[in-house]
Design a protein that fits this description.
This protein is α+β, with helices and mostly antiparallel strands and 153 residues long. The protein contains 3 helices and 5 strands, in the order H-E-H-H-E-E-E-E. The strands form 2 sheets. The chain has a 3-stranded antiparallel sheet. The N and C termini lie far apart (34 Å).
Length: 153
């Protein structure tokens, strides 16, 4: 298994995008994506997403979470109160958004490009697995209450 947690500056780089690959997207040394390709900042690694939820670790660096907890996502995810990218430390989420500001296309588990990222903080969250009736079969993270919400870019 690869070293986790990792400082943001030590995260592996996505060869296509040139940005850091967060813990939730998989890293080399832990198998990376199931197809054997290099880890990418475009897709989430389902194993890591579950690990973030059950072990309460940051989706960016892999270290244990404190409070407040940050979530980043699209306006639609914010409006639904259901995020696909795992919880993160506030500093890690801000650093990740800054690094991905110029990235093209869908990144960080989104199915389409995000015009403006929203960053919300919360004291706690629920991890919700999709049911057979759900159109989107990916699990979500649902903040129990919003402490702060801001558009990040």
């Amino acid at each position: 298994m690869d070293a986790a947690p990792r400082a943001f500056a030590e995260l592996p780089r996505d060869p296509e995008l040139g940005v850091p690959v967060p813990f939730a997207c998989g890293t080399t040394g832990y198998g990376g994506p199931r197809d054997g390709a290099a880890p990418s900042g475009r897709v989430l690694d389902a194993r890591r997403v579950t690990q973030c939820a059950l072990s309460r670790v940051c989706g960016v660096c892999g270290a244990g979470l404190g409070r407040p907890i940050a979530f980043l996502g699209s306006r639609a995810e914010t409006d639904r109160n259901a995020f696909h990218f795992p919880p993160a430390h506030l500093d890690c989420a801000e650093a990740l958004l800054s690094a991905y500001a110029g990235a093209s296309g869908a990144v960080l588990g989104q199915t389409e490009p995000v015009e403006a990222w929203v960053l919300v903080t919360t004291p706690a969250f629920e991890y919700v697995r999709a049911t057979s009736e759900d159109l989107d079969r990916r699990p979500t993270f649902q903040p129990i209450s919003i402490l702060d919400e801001r558009v990040a870019g």
